[in-house]
Amino acid sequence: MFSFTSDQKTETPITSVYQERFTFRYGYARAGETQQADDIGQDYLAFHVENRSFQFVLCDGVSLSFYGNIAAQFLATKLLAWLRSVSVEEVRDERTMAVALHAYLGGLVEEATEIVDTYRLPRALSPLLRDVLEEKRRNGSEAMFVCGRVDIIDDWSKQANVFLACSGDMRVRLWDGTREVACFPCDEEDRHQRWSTKNGLMSGDIKTASSSGMGQPFNRMFVYSDGFAAIDSLRSIPKTERLQNLMAESFSSPTSDDISFLDIAW
């Protein structure tokens, strides 16, 4: 068994692990400006590996909402618990999973709204900034997300059942060995999609996909937030050292953003 949850105030270098038939790499870093200010990151990455099953969630808090990190952490924690609760049989039915996930997300609004409503603002805030934040509070905290589950169904062939769901501008790239075969359709046009603590899903429905419906075999996936756009153009699987260097280089960019990265192979 292996679990990971982001510490939104600490960087996690690219780390490699082999566990439960899976080989995976992961890393987390706040934007350069956020690190300098010793502030909280907006991304939240969480995953769990056990009994030949890998469940993961990556949430990217919307910075223009009320403390996007709140929605990111809350939603990631809840989605991971949901993915872990689903049976192997249920997860094979993409349509059933999509309907269940949609209902689950709607059911989180009341609890999430209470968390936002009772969140205490820092005392040192200026009256103007406090007014701005109170206005944002009324509209809720928001986050984009991608989540999924991989279940190994045959040890010999390493065949797996995969379910993916996404809302927002998140990256999911699928590989068959060292060859990239597909990119899960969550692109720039989806940047207005997100989940809100006040309104639930916004600007469109969840996009889902499954291994049975992809029409293309794959045994590896990259999942990462838009802060790691530097690897979008890479057409081969980068070594860990290069990933770490690209992550470090991004901190000095004027457009530096939080980075979450997960590479799962089976």
How would you describe this protein?
This protein is α+β, with helices and mostly antiparallel strands and 266 residues long. It has a single domain (2-265), classed as Phosphatase 2c, domain 1. The protein is 29% helix and 35% strand. The protein has helices at 32-36, 68-85, 88-91, 94-107, 109-117, 127-139, 211-214, 240-250; strands at residues 2-5, 12-19, 22-29, 43-50, 53-61, 142-154, 159-167, 171-176, 179-183, 194-196, 200-202, 207-210, 220-224, 259-265. The strands form two sheets. Strands 1, 4, 5, 6, 7, 10, 11 and 12 form an eight-stranded antiparallel β-sheet that branches. It has a six-stranded antiparallel β-sheet with strand order 2-3-14-13-8-9, covered by helices on one side. The longest helix is centred in the first third of the chain and has 18 residues, at 68-85. The protein starts with a strand and ends with a strand. The mean pLDDT is 95. This is PPM-type phosphatase domain-containing protein. InterPro entries: PPM-type-like_dom_sf.
Indicate the CATH topology. Phosphatase 2c, domain 1
Superfamily at the CATH H level?
A: PPM-type phosphatase domain
State the order of secondary-structure elements, H for helix, E for strand.
EEEHEEHHHHHEEEEEEEHEHE
Largest sheet: 8 strands, antiparallel
Mean pLDDT: 95
Describe, in short, the structure shown.
With 266 residues, the protein is of the alpha+beta class.
Fold blueprint:
Elements: E1 2-5, E2 12-19, E3 22-29, H1 32-36, E4 43-50, E5 53-61, H2 68-85, H3 88-91, H4 94-107, H5 109-117, H6 127-139, E6 142-154, E7 159-167, E8 171-176, E9 179-183, E10 194-196, E11 200-202, E12 207-210, H7 211-214, E13 220-224, H8 240-250, E14 259-265
Antiparallel strand pairs: 1-4, 2-3, 3-14, 4-5, 5-6, 6-7, 6-10, 7-12, 8-9, 8-13, 10-11, 13-14
